[in-house]
């Protein structure tokens, strides 16, 4: 994994009017600084078919006293950006969450029938006002509401904790209700669903 990124390359090369070989040397040194045993200046020169003098001139052009000073600076930058135990754990957790997400996604698809999808699609295409029930602070709810609004729908967002009276007011002009719930359904939410079934 490369931690000294294109941004580092840009930081060192901007405004320097580097030649083609100098660009190649800089890119090589940025990459090489991540190895446990970085190349000596002679090895770099041989690898890039250039001279040690050209490499030293580049280091001085970039503001360093020479090859050693520049490569030591790169090693320090790499150490500062290298993965810690915490970031490695975070990466593992993200992988686990992604695996769980894909399983939930597939389970949802498996649970849906063609009839369910067809009915929902027809309801969506014939509705002008959509009410979304869920956590109003949820970024996903905000995203769905914005997407529907961009398609010309009038969107009403209400919380699953809203009173039945407030819910009923919105229901009078609602043509389609979407419920998003991350946890088990609360008694309040179940009452709203039952109420809709009776009225609609």
Automatic annotation (TrEMBL):
InterPro entries in alphabetical order: Homeodomain-like_sf (IPR009057), HTH_RpiR (IPR000281), RpiR-like (IPR047640), WH-like_DNA-bd_sf (IPR036388)
Domain HTH rpiR-type, residue spans: 5-81
Pfam families reported for this sequence: HTH_6 (PF01418)
Top-level division of the source organism's lineage: Bacteria
Molecular functions per Gene Ontology: carbohydrate derivative binding; DNA binding; DNA-binding transcription factor activity
Protein's name in the database: Helix-turn-helix domain, rpiR family protein
Lineage of producing organism: Bacteria, Bacillati, Bacillota, Bacilli, Lactobacillales
């Amino acid at each position: 994994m490369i931690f000294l990124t294109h941004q580092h390359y840009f930081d060192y090369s901007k405004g320097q009017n580097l030649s083609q070989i100098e660009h190649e040397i800089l890119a090589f040194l940025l990459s090489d600084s991540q190895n446990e045993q970085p190349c000596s200046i002679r090895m770099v020169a041989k690898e890039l078919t250039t001279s040690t003098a050209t490499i030293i001139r580049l280091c001085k052009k970039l503001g360093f006293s020479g090859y050693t000073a520049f490569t030591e600076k790169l090693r320090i930058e790499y150490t500062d950006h290298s993965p810690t135990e915490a970031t490695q754990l975070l990466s593992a957790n993200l992988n686990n969450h992604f695996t769980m997400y894909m399983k939930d996604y597939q389970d949802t698809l498996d649970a849906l029938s063609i009839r369910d999808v067809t009915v929902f699609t027809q309801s969506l295409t014939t509705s002008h006002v959509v009410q979304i029930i869920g956590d109003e602070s949820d970024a996903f709810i905000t995203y769905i509401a914005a997407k529907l609004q961009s398609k010309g729908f009038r969107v009403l967002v209400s919380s699953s904790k809203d009173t039945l009276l407030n819910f009923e007011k919105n229901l009078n002009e609602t043509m389609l209700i979407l419920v998003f719930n991350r946890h088990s359904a609360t008694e309040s939410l179940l009452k709203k669903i039952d109420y809709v079934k009776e009225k609609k």
